[in-house]
C-alpha cells in the first residue's frame, strides 16, 4: 500500500515535469516575444534586447528550461502579453470563480450520473425520458447547451440571469456561495446559485453521461454476480443488497472515469465561461487565445493540467484504499 | 412474449398449458421420514424461462418432497433444470429470465411462489440456507468474512461459533479475512457457515463440490453429513455426478429435461435403477472399475430438436428400450412396489434391470486389469535405450513470479525437479489436483511455456487438445479454415489435404457440413471433436491432452475419450493425458504419473497405481474418488434423529 | 471539447463464449443454427442498418457540400439577418448577409472530414502502436505503453488547446493539436484487445498447429480486433466533432471568412437575444453530426455483436 502511494506520487511528479517541459517547448515555438511584454510595445530595439538578456532568452535552451522550471516553482509564470500583469496574479484572481463553477458542476454531474445509472439499472418506471433527454443533451457541444439555456431561461422565460457571477463579486475568498453561507446572506447565496445553475448544467451534462454510463454498466454487471445472489439468499433487504453488495463493487471503474471527466471539465470550462462571460480562468484563456498571449495560455495549461494530474493521483490512491484485493 | 406473460419471480401464472401430473400423496414421494410433514414440497412445478428472446420450458411438472433431516440428491446433466429447480425453491429466479411458473412450491412452511417479498426474505433469512457452486465468485470480494456472516446474524459471537461449526480453523481470526485470502475449500466452508445462520431447516447445495479438488470435495461432503446430524437440517444436494450423490444422500431424484425420471432411496436407485436414463448414466460413468479394454460405454447423443423430444418421454431419442408410444405420450410417475421408488417410464422395470446388468460390471476394483487399446508397448523395462523415448524430461523446474500490484513478488514453483520419460507409442496419464503443476508440465512439453530449469527433449512433433475446446478454436475462422491451416503448415498437397480432411471428419463422427461452420455454432462436444480433428489431421508423434473432457457432461466425455483412444490406436501416437480424475487416468494411460505441488510423487503401471499406491498423496487422491459402492461419509443411521441438535 | 464520452467498444466480447455454467443452463444449446439475429430482433437490425447507412449518407453530404450549397458561403448574397424559411434562403442569412444554409453545409463538410481525419490518424497510429505492443509484449510493450500512458495522463483537450495556440490558428494546426492527444486512446484500447486475444488458447492452439508469427497476428488476432476498433472509432467521431467545434469556437481553427461551425457561433454570439437562430443553427448542426456519429456507432456495435 505504502509502496503504491509512493509510486503514484512519483509518477505524478514525473508527469508534472513532462507537462512543464511540454509547455516550455510550446512556448519556444509559439509566436510572440515575452521580452516585449516586459518593456512594452513601443520600446526601442535596444531595450528589447536588454530585456531578452535579463530574461535569459539568449541562453541555450536547457538553461532556459531549468530557469523556467525554477521560476514556475516560485510562482513566476511570466508576464501576460495582453494584461501586462504577472500571469500568476491573473490566475490568482480568476481561479476561485473557476474552482467554484467546476466543483459545483462536478457535484451536479455526479448527481445526474447517479440518477442516470440507478434509474437505468433498476429500471425505475418513467425515468426513460430523463435518460433519453440526458443522452440527447450529451451529444450537444457545451456552447449549444449554454446558448440554448440563455435563450430559453433568460431570453424567453426570464427565470435565470444571462451571464456573470452576480452583483457582488468582491467576496473575500472568491467563492460566492461559501462567503454568503458564512455570512448568512441568503439573498447573495440565492443569487450566486442562480448564476451558477446554467453554466454548471451546461458543463455537467457530458461528464454526467460518461460517468453514468460506466456506473450503470458496473451496476448491471454486479447485479449478475454470484455474490449478489448469495446476498439475496441470505434474506437481507433489497436496499441492503444494493448498497452493501452491488454499489460498493461497481465503483472502481466509475471512480477512474470521474477523475478523467474532471480533466475534460477543465477544458469544457473554457467554453462555458466564454459563453457566460464567467470571470474565471477559462474566460481568461479564451481572451488570451485570439491575442496569442502564450505566457497566459501556458500558465493556464500548467495550472489546470497540474490540478488534473494531482486529482487523478488522488483518485487512484483512493481506489487502492477502497479495494482490499489490491492491498494485500 | 406479450407483456402479461412477464411476472416477477415468486408469482405464478396458474393457467398453463402443462397440466402436470396430479398431485401425488406425500407418502408416495417422501418415504420413511417419520411423521412430520415435509420441509419442502414441490407439486406439479413447471417453469419456463426466456433467454436471448426465446422462451423454453425448463421444468415440466416436477414433484418432490424433502423430509426433515433428509438429504435428497438432485442429479442431472447440464440442461436438466436442476439449478432452476433449486432457485425456484428459494424464490431466487432472476427476473431478467422472465420466469413463467405453474404448480406449487412450499419450503419451510412458506409458499415460495405466492409469498410476498418480505415473507420470502424472512424465510430465506432464517429457515433456508444456500451453498452455491463456485466459492470463488459467491462471496463478496470487498467485504470481510465476518461481516458477510453477521450481516444475517447480527451477532459476531454467533458468527465465530458457526465458523467453528464448519471446521474453519482459527475462526475468530478468520472473521477479519477477505475471501481472496482463503483457499477454495475454506471459502466453501464460509458459504456453509452463511447457510447455517438462522438455524435453517433446509440447505440447498447447488453443485457445492464441483469447483473443488477431489480431496477437498470429500471433506466438504463429510462436513455436510455432519451438519445434518448436528443441526438436524435437511439438505437438497444438487450434482451432476451420481457417485458424489451416493456419498451422502438418503434419496436421489434423477432429473432429465425438466422432469423427474426416477426418484427413490439412494441404495435402491444406484444398484437397481428402474429408468433407462438412470441405467445409462450409471453405465456410462467412468469409475475405477470400468473395463480398460474395448470402447468406453456411452449414452447416445441426442441430435433431435428439443421441441420434438418434449412431446413424449424426453429420453425416447436416446433410449435403448424405446417403444412406439414413448415418442408421443409422456409416461406418468408410477411407484415400484416395495422399493419406495417412483419412475416415469412405459417399460417394465425388469427390462431396465436387464440392460443395467448388461452394461455395468460388478463393482469392485481390479476386475479388469488389461492394458488398453491395440498398441501396447511392452510395459516395464526402465533400461530402454533413449531412442525409444518420445519425451524426455530432466530436472525440469518452472517458477512463476506473480506480481499483485505493488506488493513484494510471490514466487510459485509450478514445477520442481521433474524427471519423466514417455516411451514412443505409450499412453501416459498425469494426475494431480489443481495447482499440482500437471498442466504446466504439459505446456512445457508442448513448448508453450518456457521452463526455468532443466531440459525437455521432444522427439517428433506435438499437438495439444485443450481443456476448453470453445476457446481453443479461433472464433471467426471456419472449421475448414482451421483444418487447412494445419495441413498447409505441414505442407500437405491440396488434393491430399482434401482427402485427409474428409477422413478425419468421418473418423470424428462429424458431418462434412461443419467445414463451413464457425466454432460458435457448434455444441461443446462437437467443438472438442473439431479440436481433436485439427490435432490429428496431420498425425503428430505426441498428442498432449489437457483435461479435454472436464467441461463436458459425462456421456459426452466418454465418447471423446473413446475417440482419443481410437486415434491413438490408428495413428500409433504417443499420448500424454492430463486429468484430475484417477478413474479417467486409469482408462487413458498405460502408465500413470501422480503430481503434487510441482513434483512428481509417483509413477508406474496404471493398474499398480490404482490398486497399490505407494505414496500417501496418491492414496489420498484414490480414497477421495467418489464410489457408488462406498458410502464414505454417510452416517450409519438414516435421517437425523435429533432435530434439535446442539451446537 | 466538453466532457467527452469515450466508449471502448466491445471489450471482452471477443468471440463466442461457451455458455455452459451460466445461471440458466437449462436452455437448450444451439446446434447448427446460425446465430444471426440473436441479439436483435429483425426490426432492430433494420433500424441499426439504417443508422449505419446514415453515417455513410452524412459522409456523402459532406463530400457533395459544394454542389449542394445554393450560394457562395463567403459572399453576401441577400439582406442581413433574414430568418429561416425566407425566400431563396432556407435557413436565412447571417449578420453579413451570407446564406446560412450554404455556410452550414460547407462548415459541416469541414467538421466531418476533420473529425474523420483525426479519428483515422488516431486509429492508424494508435492501432499500429497497440498491435505492436500487444503482439510483441515484453519490453517493447512496456516501453510503448509507458509512452502512451504519459500522453493519457495529461489533460488531452487542454494540451490540444495549448499546442494549437502555440502553432497559431489554422485548420492544419488544429488537426495536429488534436491528433497529438487523440491516438493514445486507440493505442490503449487496441493493445488491451490484442493482449486479451493473444492470451486466449486459440492463439496457442494455432501456434501449435504451425502458424507463424505474422499469420498468428494477421489471422488469429487482428480479425478479432477489427470490430472493436471500428466501433470505437465510429463512436469517437462524435467526440471529435464536438471537440473541434469547441476549438473553433475559441478561435482556433480556420481563419475568418471560411465557414466553420464553431467560429460562426462565436462570431454571431452578440445576436443571441435578437436573431438567436444565427448562432444556434451552426451549433445545432454540430449536435446533429455528433448525434449521427453516436447512433451510427451504437448501431454498428449492435450489428457486429449480433454477428458474433
From TrEMBL, chain A:
Top-level taxon: Bacteria
GO CC entries: plasma membrane
GO biological process: transmembrane transport
Domain ABC transmembrane type-1: start-end pairs: 95-315
TM region positions: 101-122, 134-155, 196-215, 253-276, 296-315
Organism of derivation: Actinacidiphila guanduensis
Record's protein name: Peptide/nickel transport system permease protein
Annotated localization: Cell membrane
Protein family per UniProt: Belongs to the binding-protein-dependent transport system permease family.
Membrane topology, from the record: Multi-pass membrane protein
Keywords: Cell membrane, Membrane, Transmembrane, Transmembrane helix, Transport
Automatic annotation (TrEMBL), chain B:
Residue ranges with Low complexity bias: 20-37
UniProt keyword list: ATP-binding, Cell membrane, Membrane, Nucleotide-binding, Transport
Disordered as annotated region, ranges: 1-37
ABC transporter domain mapped to chain residues: 42-282, 393-622
Membrane topology: Peripheral membrane protein
Single GO term (MF): ATP hydrolysis activity
Stored Pfam families: ABC_tran, oligo_HPY
Gene Ontology terms: biological process: peptide transport
Cellular compartments per GO CC: plasma membrane
Membrane spanning stretches: none
Cell location: Cell membrane
Protein family per UniProt: Belongs to the ABC transporter superfamily.
Protein's name in the database: Peptide/nickel transport system ATP-binding protein
Organism annotation: Actinacidiphila guanduensis
UniProtKB/TrEMBL annotation, chain C:
CDD domains referenced in this protein's UniProt entry, alphabetically: TM_PBP2
Domain of life: Bacteria
Keywords attached to this entry: Cell membrane, Membrane, Transmembrane, Transmembrane helix, Transport
Annotated Gene Ontology cellular component terms: plasma membrane
Main localization of the protein described in the UniProt heading: membrane
A Pfam family the protein falls into: BPD_transp_1
Gene3D superfamilies recorded: MetI-like
Keyword set includes Magnesium: no
Xref: InterPro entries: BP-dependent_transpt_permease, MetI-like, MetI-like_sf
Transmembrane helix in keyword set: yes
TM regions (residue ranges): 50-69, 112-136, 143-164, 269-293
Membrane topology: Multi-pass membrane protein
Cellular compartment(s): Cell membrane
Family: Belongs to the binding-protein-dependent transport system permease family.
Name of the protein this chain belongs to: Peptide/nickel transport system permease protein
Organism the protein comes from: Actinacidiphila guanduensis
